[in-house]
Amino acid sequence: MKKINYRRLVPLAILLVLFAVILRSSIFASYVVDGESMQPTLYDGNLLIVNKIIYNIRDVGRFDVIVFHANKEDDYVKRVIGLPGDEIEYKDDKLYINGEYVPEKFLRMDGYVQASDSHPYTKNFTLTEITGEKVVPEGQLFVMGDNRGDSYDSRAFGFISMDQLVGKVDIKYWPLSQTKLSFGK
User: Fold this and answer.
1) Which tens digit of pLDDT belongs to each residue from 33-87?
2) What are phi and psi of 79, to 5 degrees?
3) Phi and psi of 81, rounded to 5°?
4) Which neighbouring-strand residues pair with 174?
């Protein structure tokens, strides 16, 4: 039986811990969901891992769940609805992008009730009515929370800049039992 050489093991363990800290701080970030604006996808108290470098590798995708800097103190988690050049309209509780109906399957999870005949889940609007712009400007995104009736999002504060992006929500890791995540494409 061979003896363990602790003189070699300790520096290796320190190096691995240092590598993990650097990797975590530069590539990933942890967040806690605060609020109900992303229900039924994310719930208050969910813990998230955000990929901070994904958008250096690929473009932002429609329906990506992202974290962005809302101001100097707060970061928000929302879903990307409009990409640069998109014309957006909600009519009769349906999303139309560039005149074509686009289903939002992520809103219909686990029997979560979205709308009734008298109260639509997402009220009718056009991008022009909300922002004064016909299309999402270059370098900007239009974002919304999945809990459309209780979300402070682009309908209230307008477009967000690509420069505000922190990254894409890759993993909800706690609690695991609440709901399945659906991130669109």
Assistant:
1) 999 999 888 989 899 989 999 999 999 999 999 999 999 999 999 999 999 999 9
2) -105, 135
3) -105, -45
4) 47
User: Which letter does DSSP use for residue 162 in this model?
Assistant: G
Residues with active-site annotation: 37, 78
Contacts 24+ apart (CB under 8 A), 42-47: 42/77, 42/146, 42/169, 42/172, 42/181, 43/178, 43/179, 45/175, 46/172, 46/174, 46/175, 46/178, 47/172, 47/173, 47/174
From CA 172, how far away is CA 164, in angstroms rounded?
21
For residue range 17-35, what is the model confidence (pLDDT) as tens digits?
A: 777 777 666 788 888 999 9
Pairwise CA distance, residues 50 & 31, whole Å: 7
As given in the structure block, the two tokens for residue 40 are 């039924």
Chain segment 134-182, per-residue pLDDT in tens: 999 999 999 999 998 889 999 999 999 999 999 999 877 765 444 333 3
pTM over 0.85: no
Helical segments of the chain, H only: 6-27, 54-57, 127-131, 154-157
Please list, in sequence order, all residues whose beta carbon lies within 8 angstroms of the beta carbon of residue 93, skipping any fewer than 6 positions away. 114, 115, 120, 121, 122
Output phi, psi for 139, to 5 deg.
80, 10
